[in-house]
Automatic annotation (TrEMBL):
Gene3D superfamilies according to UniProt: RutC-like
InterPro entries: RutC-like_sf (IPR035959), YjgF/YER057c/UK114 (IPR006175)
Gene Ontology cellular component annotations, sorted alphabetically: cytosol
GO molecular function, one term: deaminase activity
Protein family according to the UniProt entry: Belongs to the RutC family.
Name this protein carries in UniProt: Endoribonuclease L-PSP
Source organism per UniProt: Pseudoroseomonas cervicalis ATCC 49957
Length: 129
């Protein structure tokens, strides 16, 4: 199984994401993951919570017989878009460490709040296995 990035002709090449992804197989939907560990503890800081949220996504993927390379879409919900933008370089490094060089279709939305009061972000994933 492989995913194919979709790039409309004449569009600028995206950095760190794809405009669309196409694949064939079973769909694995990962519910929104926040940056807490298996005991419900949150690390301090946006980057640390992002790492943990992505690691949580990978754990759910593994439970379904998949890996980061199967992710076709990510949706990020952040409390503060300025906080996200302020650490893009660090986020890129963390993303590549956990997810590899798979850059799925992504959306990022600033929200007014999340269910878990300590959470700085929540990320959903859709994979094609």
């Amino acid at each position: 199984m492989s995913l194919t990035p979709l790039q409309p002709e004449g569009w600028p090449t995206p950095r760190g994401y794809s405009n669309g992804m196409m694949g064939e197989g079973r769909i694995l939907c990962v519910g929104g993951q926040v940056g807490w560990d298996s005991e419900g503890r949150f690390p301090e800081g946006f980057v640390a919570q992002t790492r943990q949220a992505l690691e949580n996504i990978v754990a759910v993927l593994r439970a379904g017989g998949a890996g980061p390379e199967h992710v076709a879409r990510l949706t990020w919900y952040v409390l503060d878009i300025a906080e996200y933008r302020a650490c893009l370089k660090e986020l890129g490094a963390v993303y590549r460490e956990v997810m590899g060089k798979n850059f799925p279709a992504m959306a990022l939305v600033q929200v007014a709040g999340l269910v878990e009061p300590e959470a700085r972000l929540e990320i959903e994933a859709t994979a094609i296995v």
